[in-house]
Specification:
The protein contains twelve helices and five strands. The protein has helices spanning about 20-25, 30-90, 100-120, 125-150, 155-165, 165-300, 305-335, 335-340, 345-360, 375-395, 425-430, 430-440; strands spanning about 360-365, 400-405, 410-420, 445-450, 460-465.
Length: about 475
């Protein structure tokens, strides 16, 4: 299979390609449009940022201009209240008319400060603001003088100040100046809003162009994605085909290894059975004959020297130990109890005797009566129990061992536990002994589970169904 450049994919296997290598593999018909669209997109982005910046500056100017307009209107309103308070107090001498006057004086100072802050940097507006502040000061002085005279009881002079009309002239000049400033600010607002509109239109055009460029880039990327998906699908199909082929090979090899292991275990059991029979029949016969001859010699050794009698006694003890050793070897190779009394009795006897020799406390739980167990299944479960107890004695550093054998409604359940140091899960996966036990159980369609916690012991649970395929038969000793 080849890629879109005509290069076989097998040439890339095992070779690391970085980003620039991949970019160089792309044809010009692909990367040139991408570069062009990217540059155009960058230009459109810069134009949009410039227009957005103009909109932001114009918005700030609009806010500042509106603020100045509001402050001018507020100053004019405060002066009108001030004038109304003056006339009301002069006509009635009622102090409640002074409330607007007293509140307007500090408010006018604050309004004037805010207005100067907003107008800072704008010479034309600042000049007009200065003139309005001058008129405001004149008006405040005129109002303050008339109110002060009235408060002192000189109402005639206060009214004379009012009748001169200077205050009205000042207010007319202030209103005219304020209106002129508001008109100037209105014209500026119109210009700023027009500039905002132009910048907004330009930004929309930039967004539209960017959207079109993005759409073109998406189309190009989709084409690349589709081509890459086709290539990946072809590669996936090839890899899937190769994976299935390897799975079939692995399954065949695993089946062959499993069959070979089962055969080797069956052959080993057969060899153990043959060896146990030969040891029991031939070596047992020889040792029995030798023991009988030694007994005959001992019966006639009363006339012999003491040294000869001692040697005969040692020889009798040696032959007796050899017969005991032969019995233990035969029992390990092929337990006689397994063939004559069944699996539960053989397991109980083996665990009791072995734990007693190893100094372990053993508790066994087996059924009082059980139906005969198939020979192949019985020897497999016995070997599992034998290997488990050997591992406990060698590695577990345990003090107690528990054996449980049950016959359930669907099969047999063997459980072996200890209170030792526990087992490392990594070691459990790599142990040949455990692998052999697991294979024995799996070959009988059973389940093999190990539960172990460091410092809290280990428990082995084996379950085997009744209808289990029997390996090659083993002739009993």
């Amino acid at each position: 299979m080849a890629d879109r450049h005509g290069l076989p994919w097998r040439q890339y296997r095992g070779i690391h390609l970085d980003f620039w290598d991949g970019l160089r593999l792309l044809p010009g018909s692909i990367w040139l449009p991408i570069v062009a669209i990217s540059l155009l997109g960058l230009g459109v982005y810069l134009v949009n940022e410039w227009s957005v910046s103009r909109i932001r500056v114009a918005a700030e100017s609009v806010n500042r201009t509106l603020g100045m307009q509001n402050e001018v209107i507020a100053m004019r309103s405060q002066l009108v209240d001030l004038e109304s308070a003056q006339r009301g107090f002069l006509l009635t001498t009622n102090r409640r008319y002074l409330a607007p006057y007293e509140s307007a004086l500090p408010d006018l100072q604050v309004i004037s400060a805010r207005l100067r802050t907003l107008a800072a940097g704008d010479a034309e507006v600042l000049e007009r603001v200065t003139r309005l502040e001058e008129l405001r000061g004149i008006k405040i002085a005129e109002v303050t003088a008339s109110i002060s005279l009235t408060q002192l009881g000189d109402r005639a002079n206060a009214m004379a100040i009012l009748r001169t009309g200077e205050g009205r002239k000042v207010m007319d000049q202030f209103r005219a100046g304020a209106q002129a400033l508001i008109g100037l600010l209105d014209s500026r607002l119109t210009s700023l809003r027009e500039e905002q509109t132009k910048s907004l239109v330009l930004s929309r055009y930039a967004f539209a162009a960017l959207a079109l460029l993005t759409l073109a880039l998406i189309v190009l990327v989709v084409r690349l994605f589709v081509a890459d998906s086709v290539r990946r699908e072809e590669q996936r199909y090839e890899e899937e085909h190769e994976r299935r082929r390897l799975e079939v090979v692995i399954e065949d090899r695993t089946r062959e290894l499993s069959q070979l292991t089962t055969h080797l275990q069956s052959a080993s059991e057969q060899e153990k059975a043959d060896l146990a029979r030969d040891l029991h029949d031939e070596l047992g016969g020889l040792l029995t004959a030798a023991n009988m001859d030694l007994a005959w010699l001992q019966g006639r050794s009363v006339t012999m020297e003491q040294e000869v009698r001692d040697k005969l006694g040692e020889l009798v003890r040696t032959v007796t130990e050899a017969m005991n050793l032969k019995r233990r070897v035969v029992e390990n190779l092929r337990p006689a109890l397994l063939d004559h009394f069944g699996l539960p009795t053989a397991l109980e006897a083996y665990f009791d005797e072995t734990c007693k020799r190893a100094g372990l406390k053993c508790r066994t739980t087996i059924p009082d009566e059980a139906d005969p167990i198939p020979q192949a299944l019985a020897i497999a479960l016995f070997r599992v129990g034998q290997e488990s107890l050997t591992n406990i004695i060698r590695h577990a550093k345990a003090r107690r061992v528990e054996l449980s054998f049950e016959v359930g409604p669907t099969g047999y359940h063997l459980s072996i536990g200890d209170d030792g140091v526990g087992m490392d899960p990594e070691r459990a996966r790599s142990s040949h002994g455990l692998s052999g036990m697991r294979h024995r159980v799996v070959s009988l369609n059973g389940s093999f589970e190990i539960q172990s916690t460091p410092g809290k012991g280990t428990r082995l649970d084996v379950q085997v169904p009744f209808a289990s395929p029997a390996p090659a038969s083993v002739t009993p000793a």
